[in-house]
Amino acid sequence: MDKKRDIERAAEEIEELFDDLWQVFPFTRTMRRGYRPHVDVYRTDDPPSFVVHVELPGVDPGDVKLLAGARGIIVSGERHRAKDSGHYEQMEIAYGPFQRQVMLSDAVDPDRAAATYDRGILCITLPIVPKPPRQENVAIKVTVTR
């Protein structure tokens, strides 16, 4: 399971590097794939939860879809460009569809997840599932039957 998570994180980092590349080289700006919101994830202790913040300025909350599973979430939607934009002299703001997948290091309870949207920041709280107590080894007596 750790190898899968490592591969997913590596793929995410490669995607971020390419997104940064689009910003650095002017000839690539027309090739951008769309909007990629920034994400922060942190853990709280009381109660044990993951909190995910997603930057979504200019995104209508009705255009955001959230899908939570036991080990991660997917946030998707679209940031729309104004219909009457005219002719651009400079274009740096990214628009378009987006999807971010966030993998978590511990299992969460998606049924108890909650989300709020305030001033362009989506805040998702995912309660961590308590780990069962570690069981000790138990000796089993073998009975011989004839």
Secondary structure elements and pairings:
Elements: H1 2-24, E1 39-45, E2 48-55, E3 65-68, E4 72-79, E5 96-103, E6 114-118, E7 121-127
Antiparallel strand pairs: 1-2, 2-7, 3-4, 4-5, 6-7
From the structure above, extract its key features.
Immunoglobulin-like, three-stranded antiparallel sheet, four-stranded antiparallel sheet, 146 residues, 1 helix, alpha+beta, elongated
Overview of the structural elements:
This protein has 146 residues and is of the alpha+beta class. The protein has a domain at 34-127: Immunoglobulin-like. It has one helix and seven strands. The protein has one helix at 2-24, and strands at residues 39-45, 48-55, 65-68, 72-79, 96-103, 114-118, 121-127. The protein has a four-stranded antiparallel beta sheet, with no helix packed on it. Strand 3 (65-68) and strand 4 (72-79) form a beta hairpin. The termini are far apart. Residues 28-32 have low confidence and may be disordered.
